[in-house]
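Researcher: Hi, I'm a grad student and pretty new to this. My advisor asked me to get structures for two proteins we've been looking at. I'm not sure of the right format, so I'll just paste the first sequence and hope you can take it from there.
Model: That works fine. Here's the first sequence with its structure tokens right after it:
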Amino acid sequence: MASPARLLVMVLVAVAVSLAMVLVVTNRMLPSAQMPVLWERMLLFGLSPAPLVREWFGASPPPLVRDLAVTWWKAQPLTWWWLPVLVLVARWLVLRLGRRKKV
């Protein structure tokens, strides 16, 4: 059985890897020409990360920040809550199948 600290680290790594996967896949599906249009829509309707980004960076944030905010909005990472569980189960399965039986 893993210690609580090791288990916590594994869960945090699984969450970070899952979040990165969701953001990268979503960013790849969004055309770069569509980013400014989606950013304007987010500002007009006050959608999720837009007010926070506007408060920190002003009305015209750097393109990297704007694109990350749009990607976050389109990805809706909280709906992917089950993905870290899947990553942990896959890790456990690979380690379990990778063990050799000692004779």
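Researcher: Oh nice, that was easy. Here's the second one.
Model: And its structure:
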Amino acid sequence: MEKKKRISGLGIQVALSIVCIILGALLLLSSEINVTTLSVVFCVALLFAGAAALFIFFFTGAYRRMNDYSFAVGVLMLLLGVCGLVRIDLVAGSFYAYTGIVALVLGVMMLQSAVSLTVLGSPLKIMQFIFAGIVLLCSVVIIDNVELILAPIPVFPEITLLVSGALSLIGLCVNWFTTRRQKSEEETEEE
């Protein structure tokens, strides 16, 4: 059961990282893609994800487990998707704030990885702390709409999305190699 939770957290971070990279690249490289279109795609994706969560909840018998909240998450995503489509102008107007929140979530996940590397005694913890600090700082600039930075660099949110996704994936690779190395050292000591 614990392994499933770990994989799920890893899956969320990988998915968020890939979405950030794709969104950042699309917004930077394509003038035809606008925030309203991406907002509609996001709301429709929420609808599908919510429906999938509800299907999985009933199909897998998750209703038998009292601590499984996939039904609640599915309903929440469905409602957010519907509300977003109804008020797409509001969602599009706040699109960059939402991207800042997504980057913030990735930054916090990276910070947790840095703490884990510290406990494991990895010298790569410094790199992970720097990555997390960069992403956290940039996400706060976007969420708080710091004009001092955002005005001279109008593509700052797009760059932040792209960089936060890339740094997150690099950090995941670092964690994977560190964990593998430590496991191999422990196996060598046991022999």
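Researcher: Is there anything I should tell my advisor about the second?
Model: You could mention this: Residues 53 and 74 are 5 Å apart (CA to CA).
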